[in-house]
Structure formats: structure tokens, C-alpha cells
Amino acid sequence: MASRVLQAGTQLALADVKAHGKERLKEINQHARTKKKSRVAQKLAALERSINDQEEGSTKRKRPTAAAVVSHSLT
């Protein structure tokens, strides 16, 4: 009897851990997708700015890459 109770309790605890792990994984993946989208948007905006600057400036400057224009912040 006691072993059945212990086994049932262990199964419930494992189910709780598994459910919590799935929720945490969803949060991590959502955060990664959001971060990637914002990085892509930043690089695209920087590239558009540099193209516009070059078109307006009409000087023979080398256009910087988007990675060089975007400031990298640790967040």
C-alpha cells in the first residue's frame, strides 16, 4: 500500500516537473523568436539608413554593412 502511494506521488511529481519544463521551454523559444525578429528589424533599418544616406550624399563613400551600423547591446 505504501509503495503504491509513493509510486503515485512520484509519478505526479514527475508530471509536474515535465509540465513546468514544457512551459519554460515555450517561454525560452518565444523569447528567442522575439529577439531574432528585433535583431533582423534593426539590421534592416540600419541598411536602409545607409542606403538612403549614400543616395542623398552622392559621394563615393563605401557603404558600411548593417552589422557595422547596428550598435550591439547586451540584453
Structure in words:
- This protein is mainly alpha-helical.
- It has a domain of 47 residues.
- The longest helix is centred in the middle third of the chain and has 56 residues.
- The mean pLDDT is 79.
Compact overview of the structure:
Residues 49-75 are annotated as: Disordered. With 75 residues, the protein is mostly helical.
Topology:
Blueprint: H1 2-57, H2 66-69
Question: Which features would summarize this protein structure in a list?
Answer:
2 helices; 75 residues
- Rough shape? rod-shaped
- Give the C-alpha Rg: 25 Å
- Supply the helix-strand structural class: mainly alpha
How would you name the oligomeric state of the polypeptide chains in this document?
single chain
Poorly predicted runs:
none
**Mean model confidence by pLDDT:** 79
The termini sit apart by 52 Å
Main β-sheet: number of strands, strand sense, barrel status? none
- Which percent band covers the strand fraction? under 5%
Order of helices and strands: HH
Structure summary, number of beta strands = 0
Helix content: over 70%
Number of helices: 2
